Each structure stands twice: as structure tokens, then as C-alpha cells.
Records
---
Amino acid sequence: MRSPLKSETYEIFLEEFIQLRADAGLSQRDLADKLGIGQDIVSRCEAGRRRIDVLELQQWAFACGSSLFDFAKKLDERIQRNRNPDGSTRGWKSH
């Protein structure tokens, strides 16, 4: 069983997270400077070695010229396309 940090769904999140910055034309350093944090933090988040909370995500989306809502909508669409035929989401353990 994969750890939650290595689930397919989390991998989709990371891909969309990285794409958010790339679409804004920002390097990791550029984003870090806009947020007032170190580039190493951006790198660790994008590599999945550090989780980001929803409030940080909102700030990062804004720094990239987007919004939390737009990011979440795009992420949800990707996750929906990644569903199994039975409706379960790959990478998430149902309870």
C-alpha cells in the first residue's frame, strides 16, 4: 500500500501545483521571492517532501495570478478523470 504522500491522487496534486507556477511563468526562486520564503521550501513542496496547507495554497495561487477556487476546480477535474470504473479514486483508500 502506498503512503498518502505517494498516492496517485497526491501525484496529480503535485503535477497541478507545479503547473500553477509554470503557467504563471515563475521559477521556484521567483515564487519564493513573491511569497517571502526560501526557494528550498518551494522545492520541497513541489517534490512532495513537505505538505502545504490550504491557507498556504491560497497564497501560492494568488502569487501565481490565480485563485484557490480555480486551482481546486482544475485539480478536481483531473481527479475525476482518474477515477476507477467503480467510481473510486485511484490512490485513495476508501473507509
Note: The chain has one domain: 4-80.
---
Amino acid sequence: MTAPVHLVDPPEPPKPHKDCDVCGALVEERAEAARAGDWSKVTDVNVEIGRHRAGRRRG
């Protein structure tokens, strides 16, 4: 008998900065990818939003 599989909820998508045009464009891109069912692209854009926000905090 195999061990049970433990599933977890997916992580929350990164929150864009509300006053950032770049974040706004990335949110649109993510929404378009989700509508098209391109979950790989959604993940890529989530990473890009997260990295963009991290860069804003540092500088």
C-alpha cells in the first residue's frame, strides 16, 4: 500500500503595487493568460510581479 498523498492549497498570487503601471500591465497579462488557460504563463507572470515588487522595496 502506498503512502497517502497530502495536497495543499496553491500559494496566493503576489499582490501588485496599486500605484505601479508595470504591476498593472502584469496583472492584465496574468488575467489574459488565465482566461486562455495558460497556467504556465500565469505562473511566470506571478514570479515577475513578485520580483518586481521585491525590487521596489529595496530601492
Note: Residues 30 and 42 are 5 Å apart (CA to CA).
---
Amino acid sequence: MEEENTEKEWHLTQENYIRFKNIAQREMLHRRAMMERFEYRNRRLRFVMLIFAASLIGLIYSLMSIYLMEGSFLDKKILQEDISNIVKNDGDLRAIKQALITQPKVSDLKILFSPQENHYRDGVALSIVLDDVRLSAYRTGDKTILPKLEPIIHEYEETNPFDKLQTGQKDYFENIRIKTGIEYPKISNDVNNLADELFQQNQLVTEYLSDSKMSFWISVTALFLSLLIGGYQIFSSRPEAMRRILLGILDDNNGQKQEHPNKSNLKDTSEAGVSA
């Protein structure tokens, strides 16, 4: 009779062990399903953050490009064609100046998606535009405009020889021309060459300033992105650490549950032996 009771208790202990094992396995599967769902949400969050970062970089680049351009721009091709038509229709220097003043500005959005070489800055010297029209006539072979264009260029150089220079520089050269009076033609070639050299130096200074501004904003953007990426890495590492902790706790609980039925089984067996 006692042996039958001992056998029943042993079977009951085995059933409890199997029941505990099944519960532990179900909990393990449930936890892993939760972890997989958590990781899926984490991947979605990373994808959204990546899209947000790319959009933010594009926006910063666009704003930085607009800021570095500093001012309005004119379409080079349209302006040259307009002046060429005026010259072909026997227009004078006054009409050409008016065409330059009333030339429509190019939108900032168009400038972002087109080379800067296709545009003049607003306030460009008319002498530069006239020289470009003259060069274009030689390139295209349309030399019929040259007999009308050359006198206009010569007239403009006589009345505005220092048009390409900045305002303060232009005033200094004008004072030299006024003070020398009738002696100015003797030094006019040297003064004009000096003005051309100064204009080239101004172009280089402007280019260097633009490069320095670009470098500054690139550094600011790199700092911002490094902070953004560092913050994202800290944020994304927290779920990964939490997942590892939960899996570790789950493994410990599973091991304890597996050990508990074994201890109960050994205890019941020992008690049955003593009773026998």
C-alpha cells in the first residue's frame, strides 16, 4: 500500500515537473515574442530616424547654400541674349544699362539646382557682360554683331573705365584720373592694367571668403551631426541593454524552475524511503 502511494507521489512529482517545464517554455516563447516585437519597433524607429537625419541634412545644405550665395542672381544666357538683341537693333549704351537694371532675378530654388556659372550676381559690372557677349559672338561665329558692339564697349570704357572695381576702389581711380587731367592719357594704359589686376585680386578674395564660410558651416554641420548620431547611439543602446537584461533574468528564472521540481522529486523520494 505504501509502495503504491509512493509511486503515485512520484508520478505526481513528474507531472508537476512537466507542468512547470511547459509553463517555463511558454513564458520563454512569450518573452522572445515580446523581444522580437520590441526589436521590430526599434528597427522602425531607426529607419524613421535615418529618414529624418537625411531630410535634415538636405535642409541644412539648402539653407547653407542660399546663405553663402548672398544676394540675387541674373540668368547669364537670358541677359546676354537680351543685350545682343538690343545691339542688333541699334540700341545705345543707355538702353543696355536700362536692360541690365530691369533684368528679372532668378529664384533661389532654381539656383540650388543649377550651376552657379550660369548666373551673374545682381550688380555685375556691365563691362563684364559686354565682354562675355563679345566672346560669345566669336565662339558661335555670329560676327555680324561685332561692328555694332565694339563702339559700345569702347564708349563704356571711356566713361566708366573702373566699373569692375568695388565702390571705394573705383573712387580712388576716378580721383587719379581727375587730378592728372590732360596728362592722364599718358598713364591710362598702366592705370587700366592696374585696375584689371585689382579686379582679379578682388575675385580671389571673394572666392576665399566663400570657401572659408563653407568650411565654417561644414564644421558646424559636422558637429551637429556628430551630436545627433551620438545621441541616437545612446538612445538605441538602451533597448539592446534592456533586452539582454530581460533575457538573462528569463534564463535564470527558467533554471530555477527546472531545479525546483528536481529538488521536490528528491525530497519526496527520500521521504518515501524513510517511511518504507
Note: Helices lie at 2-69, 76-88, 93-101, 108-112, 126-140, 146-159, 167-180, 184-275.
